[in-house]
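Lab channel / #folding
Pinned by the channel admin:
"Please post every new chain as: sequence first, then the structure tokens as a reply. Keep commentary short and put observations after the output so the thread stays searchable."

First post following the new format, from NK:
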Amino acid sequence: MRSYLDFEKPVADLQGKVQELRSLEKEGEAVAIGEEIGRLETKAAQALAEIYAKLTPWQKTQVARHPDRPHFRDYIGQLIEDFTPLAGDRKFAEDAAIVAGLGFMQGRRVAVIGHEKGNDTESRLKHNFGMARPEGYRKAVRIMELANRFSLPVVALVDTAGAFPGIDAEERGQAEAIARSTEACLNLGTANVAVIIGEGGSGGAIALATANKVLMLEHSIYTVISPEGAASILWRDSSRAQDAATGMKITAEDLVRFGVVDRVIGEPVGGAHREPEVTIRATGEAIVEALDSLANLPPEEIRRQRREKYLAIGRRL
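Reply from TO:
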């Protein structure tokens, strides 16, 4: 069963009627319903296109968090050949919220790092809903150092509400681990490309997304704090998350304008979860194009371009 968001109710109603008619058709009801099914499907498609043509920032936040949206493992399965995961930070433990490893992308050797949220109750608990502890970021640093040593480009797929805020994470140096991971991104002598595939939340996202090229799916979000968290701080009322989302400028369209993101990757009408294979294929093409634009550059130039990119943020307005 497809999950519908609140603002998709008109589409849900129409597609529900289509399913009812299809069940009658299967039961052999002597009713000429083929034409009615076609009419309702056309109407549902039009309604979906109209809704997604004018999504608000809060609605985009809901789409970015959709449970059926493709996750890290889905991208790896379709884009990376011979993926070999590497586990552990060599200091404390393995953290499943961040998955990292080596593989081939269209014949090019790459190191891949990303957040995995999980797609059912068991896997979400295993991966802690994509919220990494310090050892997750220290694992990321280990992989980036390995990539630097062997001149491998780094691809990061970001999808997290933020780093895990629990006491145990703070006790083991969460802030320091995030800072070290961000530093590792900046010091890479090889090209790195990051893609915001769902939520890009706070330092938990920045720790992997401080890249030469930052790409963003059309209905993803990238923000210093969740809209709910911002509303709680600004108005002491988390129910005003919709107002916060609008004011924070967290959408791909806004962030390209500010120079935070380099490119927006379009999604199928209705979001990535409706046609995940199409979305993943488009994302792969955008990553390869970004890597090609950075190919054969010496380490000093790679670092210079990355440094200038971040120093220029906020100066384009």
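NK: The first strand starts at residue 81 and ends at 85.
TO: also worth noting, The radius of gyration is 21 Å.
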